[in-house]
Amino acid sequence: MQPHQAFFHEYRMMYRPFINKLNVYLASHQLYSSQWAILRLLISEKSLTLVEISNSLNVEKPTTTRMIQKLIELDYVTTVPGKDKREKKVQLTSFGHDVCKDVQVTIEQFQLDALEGISVEEQIIVSKVLETVRNNLLK
After folding, report:
1. Per the database record, which ranges form the HTH marR-type domain (predicted)?
2. Pick from 64, 66, 67: nearest CA to 55
3. What's the Cα-to-Cα distance from 108 to each of 27, 82, 115, rounded to whole Å?
4. What does CATH list as the number for 3-137?
5. Lower CB density within 10 Å: C or N end of the chain?
6. What pTM, to 2 d.p., does this model score?
């Protein structure tokens, strides 16, 4: 197997087990990894439109709409008026902020365990490599 083939093979072989195990941890908060991705985005960006969330996560708008609706039902997010009347922004509720703090505590050890034996320097290098691959794919 060529190095480039091995890279993508190993990524694929790691991805599903990671998501499956992450979902086990997130289940105690009534979340899936895709919903957690939205909440993480809202932690850093404060408020975004559905289109901005969809574009940031490279997910179709109808899929984002369904995930946001579930997060609203859980009282993790709410919508507020945007700049014009047609625009709605999604943001974390106070309860949602608390849940996000709990989730971060819940998955911290899981992430550290998954990276066992990998130095911080190696983690930074792999993060930069994956970011470059993602950017190449989005060209």
Report:
1. 4-135
2. 64
3. 15, 34, 11
4. 1.10.10.10
5. C
6. 0.86
